Amino acid sequence: MFPKKEVVAMLLAGGQGSRLGVLTRKIAKPAVPFGGKYRIIDFPLSNCVNSGIEAVGILTQYQPLVLNEYIGNGQPWDLDGMHSGVNCLSPYQAVDGADWYSGTANAIFQNINYIDRYDPEYVVVLSGDHIYKMDYNKMLEYHKEKNAACTIAVIDVPLEEASRFGILNTHEDGEIYEFDEKPEKPKSTHASMGIYIFSYKELRKYLIEDDENKNSSHDFGKDVLPAMLNAGERMFAYPFEGYWKDVGTIDSLWEANMDLLDPNVTLDLKDIYSRNPMMPPHFVSNDAVIQNSLVADGCNVYGNLEFSILFSGVTIGKGATINSSIIMPGAVIEEGATVQFAIIAENTVVRKNAVVGAKPEDCANRDDWGIAVVGENSIIDEGAVVKPKEMIDRCTEVKANEM
After folding, report:
1. Please, what sign has the CA dihedral across residues 262, 263, 268, 273?
2. Could you read off the pLDDT of 377-389 as tens digits, one per residue?
3. Which of 87, 78, 130, 129 is nearest to 111 (CA)?
4. Phi, psi at 256, each rounded to 5°
5. How many CB atoms lie within 10 A of CB 399?
6. Cβ–Cβ contacts within 10 Å for residue 207, how many?
7. Which UniProt keywords apply (predicted)?
8. How far apart are CA 374 and CA 355, in angstroms?
């Protein structure tokens, strides 16, 4: 017998993250390292804990091994209770033949039994690929005050960027009267953050109806939310003020990491929890020069580091230069190598005098510039060059004669 919970959180973490290229070749997007000691999923998980939500279902699908191993029993987030805590919920073969999650709504539908055993009043549906801090309790209180069937968190975006988002058009009291998915001419700047609170009685009904609709794509944004709106359900937008970024692209992932080094960005990491390797303190040689950077445990720094982030166990060789870059766990940058405006994935080796990426001003044509990316377990040969925008994985040969 499971104890009743007022709120259950369902965290959608099965995305492939194809726009992150080689960084998600073998791991799901929420498992991508972030900020020197975290993975992306740490943010919604920590938000749940800090909001007092004790039951969290994590819906995994694409490449779940690393993510499942990382989450474990939930102990780093204090989510290891006997009748609560965190559960990884993978697709499964059911009597009716259902298997892979066919959409965000279908993923929740396939796990109705998990939700039912807690008999909740409310369900919070979250994405596993956003960087932000939020007290879901405040959003829940707003949901209750409005007597809503569904509340959607929104953030105000510049009008010139609004066409990139799902836009919610609302009355003055916040009640939603229209969804506009990536409109050419947006009527408002209220962008959906992909954070929903549902009254479970209503959610359950619409999920079942959606499953029975053979013409549905079984997606919240495309199917379930419009169906609720068309049925006249009370739906409200909850305004959020604070840092939020969807890190679904190489540029946005790089920018969000760099934001941690910007004193004008207000994202506070002090109560974001993670599972960290046990490593000795980092070592910085007398010859090293470090400016405005984050250096995690277990790093050995002998070179020059500026406006960059080093994850645990990274080695920077003598005379190497790292600028505006993200170096993920276990990577080695050998003597004399240069890494600029780049992302170097886990356990990669950049050999002596190799060059990865470039400064924007060093490109003759601004359109030729972009973040260079090297995938995990790759080797960049001595003296080789990886150009801006280039994406390398371990099967790509990058030789010195390509300079």
Report:
1. positive
2. 999 999 999 999 9
3. 87
4. -65, -40
5. 12
6. 24
7. ATP-binding, Carbohydrate metabolism, Glycogen biosynthesis, Glycogen metabolism, Nucleotide-binding, Nucleotidyltransferase, Transferase
8. 12
What pLDDT sits at residue 101? 78
> Does 166 carry a binding-site annotation?
yes
393: amino acid identity, one letter: D
Return the amino acid letter for 177: Y
192 among the known binding-site residues? yes
Q: Give residue-wise pLDDT tens across range 114-138.
A: 999 999 999 999 998 899 999 999 9
- What residues form DSSP beta bridges with 179? 168
Q: Is 182 annotated as a binding residue?
A: yes
The size of the chain, in residues, is 403
**CB-count burial class (<10 Å; 0-12, 13-18, 19+) for 394:** middle
- Provide the token pair at 177: 């009267």
Judge contact between 152 and 170, C-beta under 8 A.
no
Hey, what amino acid is at 307?
F
Report whether pLDDT(248) > 80.
Answer: yes
CB 257 within 8 A of CB 171: no
The answer to whether the beta carbons of residues 166 and 181 sit under 8 Å apart is yes
Q: Which two tokens stand for residue 339?
A: 């890494």
Distance in angstroms between the alpha carbons of the first and the last residue of the chain: 66
Name the E strands within 221-313.
Answer: 235-240, 244-246, 283-284, 289-291, 294-295, 300-301, 304-306, 309-310
Give 18's contacts (C-beta < 8 A, 6+ positions apart).
Answer: 24
3-state secondary structure 75-141: HHHCCCCCCCEEEEECCCCCCCCCCCCCCHHHHHHCCHHHHHCCCCCEEEEEECCEEECCCHHHHHH
CA distance 9 to 52: 11
Q: Is 101 annotated as a binding residue?
A: yes
